[in-house]
Amino acid sequence: MTEEIIIAGFGGQGVLSMGKILAYSGIMQDQEVSWFPSYGPEMRGGTANVTVILSDERISSPVLQKYDTAILLNQQSLDKFEQSVKPGGVLIYDTNGLTRFPERTDIQVYRVDAADAATKTESSKTFNMIVLGAFLKIKPIVRLENVRKGLEKSIPPRYSHLIEANEKAIGVGQEIVVRER
To answer: In this structure, which of 23, 81, 110, 179 has its CB flanked by the most CB atoms within 10 Å?
Structure first.
């Protein structure tokens, strides 16, 4: 099993940390892992993306042109990466701020209204975990107990009280994801 994923959106949406938690989760289940971030000089508001590869076999290169799954969280990312999803692959998107929606018919398209759901939770910073939950509902490639371990590894000890809220957010994402085609 090899899963090649691109996660892309604005800086500040938790794109890189979502990828890192997914990568740590893969490590916790003894998978080969690649985490390859890309971002501009802006801390928040600029575009950011991360390529994550989880595999049972050795990974030859973290650089990819096509992906099994694309998680696209803003219009710029949708415009840039929609065509990079392999035929038969998965595209997950959040509708917040989009002016054009996914158009391809040769892939599976899922909508997760994570921005709306995050504003209704105790912590609006759980947006990325809602999206991660949606992804794991569609493709349960890592076990949830390993996601918790990934959270524990990623979140600094001073913020460990946020682990429970993040786990709840993952559950929310699993509940609200909708397949469009």
So the answer is: 23
The structure tokens listed for 107 are 């892939």
**Residue 168: what residue type?**
K
The pTM is what?
A: 0.94
CATH number at residue 23: 3.40.920.10
Token couple for 170: 């993952």
The SS3 call for residue 81 is helix
Pairwise CA distance, residues 148 & 44, whole Å: 26
Structure tokens at 94: 């959040």
Please tell me the distance from the alpha carbon of residue 17 to that of residue 159, in angstroms, as a whole number.
Answer: 14
Q: Which domain holds residue 48?
A: 2-179
Q: Long-range contacts of range 156-159, CB-CB < 8 Å, 24 or more positions apart?
A: none
Which residue(s) pair with 7 in the sheet?
A: 50, 71
Q: Which of 59, 64, 54, 65 is nearest to 139 (CA)?
A: 54
Q: What are phi and psi of 6, to 5 degrees?
A: -115, 130
Look at residue 7 and give its three-state secondary structure: strand
User: Model confidence over 117-168: pLDDT tens digits?
Assistant: 998 876 778 999 999 999 999 999 999 999 999 999 888 889 888 899 999 9
